[in-house]
Write a structure and sequence with these properties.
The structure holds two protein chains of two kinds.
Chain A lengths: L3 H29 L6 H17 L7 H8 L2 H27 L7 H23 L15 E4 L2 E4 H23 L1 H11 L1 H6 L4 H27 L7 H14 L4 H21 L4 H15 L14
Antiparallel strand pairs in A: 1-2
Helix pairs in contact in A: 1-6, 1-9, 1-10, 1-11, 2-4, 2-5, 2-9, 2-10, 4-9, 6-7, 6-9, 10-11, 10-12, 11-12
Chain B lengths: L7 H18 L16 E5 L8 H20 L8 E5 L6 H13 L5 E3 L4 H14 L2 E4 L16 E3 L4 H16 L2 E7 L2 H16 L3 E8 L7 H10 L3 E5 L2 H14 L6 E6 L2 H4 L10 E4 L10 H11 L10 H20 L4 H8 L3 E2 L1 H4 L5 E3 L6 E2 L2 E6 L10 E7 L7 H6 L14
Parallel strand pairs in B: 1-2, 1-3, 3-4, 4-5, 6-7, 6-8, 8-9, 9-10
Antiparallel strand pairs in B: 10-14, 11-12, 12-13, 14-15
The chains are: A mainly alpha, B alpha/beta.
Chain lengths: 306, 429
């Protein structure tokens, strides 16, 4: 039993990271009913942008560039964590502008457009940063390991899990405790009424898409030191993110967090005791939950179920 | 007025006769010849991955093939004919590999196929190639089954395989660290075959395997496996994890500082998988077939030609994957020239048993295309991360160089059953 504890701890940290990955995806699906297949590409883009900011490659060998590279890594890392998501958010907003003609049409249009955008972003990454493996530098204080119960754990992974908790908390506060959050939720619930009350729905959608893209990019920045950084890394993100929002219930914030923790636990524990099943376990979890409760763990009840 | 009439019976007879002739002379039948014109370019189908787990290695593989083709064309072509290439993405997926091979042969009229990194993809391509008799150069997939139970008369394997690399590494590890092994295995054909070969060698040298962790392809978080390894405390971990999975594994082992706490054998280490990673990601010992800093004649010039042809490539020096792609293509074109024809059987006979000098291979020992398994028996190098690099790209420190006969994969000799020449469709490309 004691041997199981480190694997439960690992599963929970993994779950928190999955929650961070799914956060932007669930926001866009929940509010805009658009399955954003470019989520993974924005995840990768954010990580690349942060890497370039941290390395100071933007500024070349200019005086400012030299000064920048002399800054402590922790300062540049903190700026990279902010700059990557902000720049990716602006790309997300451009994508939302492109999506506008698809609103009100069958969902396939939005799917195809975001799929195309994912391919374009991935190719742009290849053109700008090359096809090879890159690494995102993290401050020395985060990059070591520590002993717990005679086992070595990664400091960075725990930092990333803590970061995920803070990010989840801040997003929740934003949605629940600010007027902007209230407007976003109202827009998701009844967009016609929100428009009738005089709110600019176009601006709202632009904000939500930008916010979702920034969250995707933030997840990329946090995950890159664990998963590595390559142009197609976004492919690794889309399936878990999609799975988590379906298990949690489409549009449910806490449903997504709960589902991510369950997925993390199932992958972490099967990874230790039946590792060949570790990837499959998340799909089995999906079948088990959706089989018994088609709207997911905390999904809203459909009108058809009444 | 003519007395001839179209009757239904006559029409049916004619249709049956035409159908029979078409079946007999059709493109899928033996002895087909669809490119007799000697001025027609020779078409090579490049079956390398441009997406999926081995996208990066696939690009490097392709660059190697293209440099060999460019050099051949600059020298006047082969048999006076220009070489043309067609590339389709095999997507690191076996099913796509089959489709690509089928299309390359039937629609693109490629007379030869070159390229692979994933063993699953290589196996799928070679099954299609054998059906049509099209020579296939498996450049970079290193599962022992490729020259063992999945060998084919048309397929030639240019990379060292898992058994070759394990053989070079395991005895040294048992002597140095002890005999308790744990296997960390990618859950697909190459991983399983390499692990099987590793087990046999561990038994042979008096060690034992305490556990095997199967890692599904696409795994990005190895913490569970790494915790389990720590709990089990083996003497040596023999990892057969490839592509992007291996990159993630390396980063996570480096983060935990486990690289020097446990003895690791990483089987083969493909250059594109580690290029650009921090130095502490290169832990343990691993195998390779070639390194750009080998102190041998021709190596510097080869690196110079690479840099001249690919000045924009972020990978500034060629690695083993590029090298295998180049060597396979170059030797295929030379075999056609020696055969004096593009007839597939004649070219196959030129390749079988062909001896390549150490100088031409830029390796320490002569190499030979084994006529029984079609695998190139070549020098195998054991390497580790370079603690004192002379330049940024000098990532490896070469520890040993083994002669082909010392690391020969004996199992494949028993399990490979090549199709007969008569059972292989013949044609001129």
């Amino acid at each position: 039993m004691i041997e199981l504890i480190p694997h439960i701890v690992n599963g929970l940290t993994l779950g928190l990271l999955f929650a961070l990955i799914a956060l932007g995806f669930t926001l866009i699906v929940g509010v805009m009913e658009v399955i954003n297949l470019a989520h993974g590409a924005l995840f990768a883009l954010g990580a690349y942008l942060a890497m370039t900011t941290i390395g100071g490659d933007w500024f070349g060998s200019s005086e400012f560039g030299v000064w920048w590279r002399e800054l402590p890594l922790s300062t540049r890392y903190a700026l990279g964590v902010v700059a990557g998501p902000l720049l990716a958010a602006s790309v997300g907003m451009v994508l939302e502008l492109c999506l506008r003609p698809t609103y009100g049409k069958p969902p396939l249009y939005g799917l195809l457009l975001t799929f195309g955008a994912a391919l374009v972003i991935e190719e742009l990454i290849r053109l700008i940063w090359g096809t090879g493996e890159q690494s995102l530098a993290v401050p020395r204080a985060l990059n070591g390991a520590f002993f717990m119960g005679g086992l070595i754990f990664s400091t960075y992974k725990f930092f990333a899990a803590g970061f995920a908790i803070v990010a989840i908390g801040l997003v929740w506060l934003f949605l629940e405790r600010t007027p902007y959050g209230a407007t976003i939720k109202a827009g998701a619930h009844d967009s016609e009424m929100v428009r009738a009350l005089g709110y600019d729905l176009s601006k709202l959608r632009l904000l939500v898409f930008g916010f979702g893209a920034a969250l995707a990019a933030l997840a990329g920045v946090v995950m890159a030191p664990i998963w590595g950084l390559r142009p197609h890394i976004g492919i690794d993100v889309i399936i878990p993110a999609f799975l988590i929002i379906v298990i949690g219930g489409v549009g449910s914030f806490w449903g997504a967090v709960l589902a991510a923790l369950l997925v993390g636990l199932s992958v972490g524990i099967t990874g230790a005791y039946a590792p060949a099943w570790s990837m499959l376990s998340m799909y089995l979890l999906l079948i088990a939950i959706v089989g018994f409760r088609s709207r997911g763990l905390l999904g809203r009840k459909s009108a058809l179920e009444n | 007025m003519s007395s001839s009439k179209f009757t239904r019976r006559g029409m049916l007879r004619s249709a049956a006769a035409v159908g029979g002739l078409a079946a007999f002379y059709g493109p899928w039948k033996h002895n087909r010849a669809y490119a007799q014109a000697t001025d027609k370019p020779i078409r090579l189908g490049l079956t390398s991955d441009a997406s999926g787990q081995y996208a990066n290695s696939g690009a490097s593989d392709r660059r190697g093939m293209l440099m060999a083709v460019a050099e051949a064309n600059a020298a006047g072509g082969v048999l006076g004919r220009k070489i043309e290439t067609v590339h389709l993405d095999t997507e690191t997926t076996a099913a796509t590999g089959s489709r690509v091979a089928e299309r390359m042969i039937t629609r693109e009229e490629c007379g030869f196929l070159v390229g692979a990194v994933s063993s699953g993809v290589a196996n799928a391509i070679s099954q299609v190639a054998q059906r049509y008799g099209v020579i296939y150069m498996n450049t970079n997939s290193s599962s022992p089954t490729e020259s063992g139970e999945n060998c084919h008369r048309v397929k030639f394997v240019w990379d060292g395989n898992g058994a070759n690399f394990s053989k070079a590494a395991i005895k040294n590890s048992i002597d140095a660290y002890g005999g308790d092994f744990m296997l960390l295995t990618n859950d697909y054909v190459w991983g399983h075959d390499t692990a099987r070969a590793t087990r046999v060698l561990i038994d042979q040298y008096g060690g034992s395997v305490s556990d095997e962790i199967l890692v599904p392809q696409g795994t990005r978080d190895f913490t569970a496996a790494l915790l389990k390894i720590q709990q089990a405390k083996p003497n040596v971990v023999a990892a057969a994890v490839g592509g992007d999975d291996q990159i993630a594994l390396r980063q996570q082992v480096a983060q935990l500082g486990m690289g020097d706490k446990i003895a690791w054998i990483n089987n083969q280490q493909d250059w594109p998988d580690i290029y650009g990673l921090p130095a502490d990601n290169l832990f343990g010992v691993f195998g390779t077939t070639w390194y750009y800093k080998l102190d041998l004649p021709g190596v510097k010039e080869f690196v110079g030609r690479y840099q001249a042809m690919y000045p924009e490539t972020s990978m500034r020096v060629p690695g083993n994957v590029f090298y295998n792609g180049y060597m396979a293509t170059k030797n295929l074109l030379e075999a056609i020239e020696r055969a004096g024809t593009t007839n597939n059987i004649a070219v196959i006979k030129q390749l079988e048993g062909h001896v390549m000098s150490a100088e031409s291979r830029m390796q320490h020992h002569d190499a030979v295309v084994d006529p029984n398994t079609h695998q190139v028996q070549q020098s195998i190098y054991l390497a580790t991360g370079n603690p004192a690099p002379t330049e940024d790209d000098d990532l490896f420190k070469i520890l040993t160089s083994s002669a082909p006969e010392d690391v020969r994969d004996q199992d494949s000799l028993g399990s490979c059953k090549l199709e007969s020449y008569d059972d292989t469709p013949t044609f001129d490309a």
